[in-house]
Amino acid sequence: MKKQLLSSMLCVASVLPTLAFAQNNTAICYNCPPEWANWGVQIQAIAKDTGVVVPADNKNSGQALAQLVAEKASPVADFTYLGITFGMQADQADVLASYKPKGWDKIPKDLKDPNGKWVAVHSGTIGFMVNVDALNGAPIPKSWDDLLKPEYKGMVGYLDPSSAFVGYAAATAVNMAKGGTLKNFAPGINYFKKLSANKPIVPKQTAYPRVLSGEIPILIDYDFNAYRAKYKDKANVVFVIPKEGTIKVPYVMGLVKNAPHSENGKKVLDYVLSARGQKIWADSWLRPVDEKAISPAAKAQFLPDSEYKRAHTLNYKEMADIQKDFSQQYLREVK
């Protein structure tokens, strides 16, 4: 019995250094889904090049912010990745620390918080990710109005705009395309009311695998996910920028205030803004904040610049300020 007890104690003792090493080299991320924005590859590169282990996390931006606020007195996460409006709201909620990563001075002023609370790492353009094989003979939709047609009933998906940033970005894009403004979301709300008659699919988290399987033939999503499906996963997927217009939006990262592994979080932020980290995203068809990281080969796989002329930037501060009001209006009138 004594021998068994001694053996067990030795086993535990041998594991403790490993656990301590893992704990000391961890950086907890809120909202780093491996199937989204090619975070899976980025996480692997971070571990290989810095030694920092980042566990995957499948929250969306709204869920991440809600948890950061709930844990404010005793933070669990070390850094977070959010749509820009949620990044601004996280700053207002005082859950982010000031940190200016390496290369800070090279980042445009409108893509970073002046106090270092958040910084843009890449952007994406809203459009239609279409699984052509799953259309059952229907034509590829070319406009926002096309999605309202009966032949697309049950085929269209968009992420919940009251929770996921990509959903809110999609709602903003259609609102602007239909004549709305950041102070008037009525055209967008009316559009979603009409779309509801076509029985759309509205998940809360990234639906990338559901598009590949054909469960969601048409997803209102970012260009980078469509290009990834086409060029990496070899699916018969196309990306469409609707003829009425759309928007492009940044995603940001920030260090969590009083993070348990803040030094590791800083290493991650430094890495994703380094030439290596930016190249990983550029090679994954995202628009890195450092556009010099986009290789000619990657650039050639995007739609022509003439198509992207229909994608516009916005006043993201205004977009953030009215987000909660929009979410309440959407839940009240559409959902």
Explain what this protein looks like in three dimensions.
This protein is of the alpha/beta class and 335 residues long. The chain has 2 domains: 27-123 and 249-300, D-Maltodextrin-Binding Protein, domain 2 (3-Layer(aba) Sandwich), CATH 3.40.190.10; 125-248 and 304-334, D-Maltodextrin-Binding Protein, domain 2. The chain has 14 helices and 9 strands. The protein has helices spanning 2-24, 39-50, 61-70, 84-92, 165-177, 186-196, 208-212, 223-232, 262-272, 275-282, 296-299, 305-308, 316-321, 323-333, and strands spanning 29-30, 79-83, 119-131, 156-158, 218-222, 237-240, 246-255, 287-288, 311-312. Strands 1, 2, 3, 4, 5, 6, 7, 8 and 9 form a 9-stranded mixed β-sheet that branches. The longest helix is centred in the N-terminal third of the chain and has 23 residues, at 2-24. Mean pLDDT is 92; it is low at 1-22.
* Gyration radius, in Å: 21 Å
Indicate the percent of residues in helices.
Answer: 40-55%
Shape: globular
What fraction of the residues are assigned to beta strands by DSSP? 5-15%
CATH C-level class of the largest domain is Alpha Beta
- Uncertain spans, ≥5 residues at pLDDT below 50? 1-22
The CATH superfamily of the largest domain is identified as Periplasmic binding protein-like II
Secondary-structure element series: HEHHEHEEHHHEHEEHHEHHEHH
- How many separate structural domains? 2
Pfam family, one: SBP_bac_6
Organism: Acinetobacter boissieri
Protein name: Putative spermidine/putrescine transport system substrate-binding protein
GO biological process, one term: thiamine transport
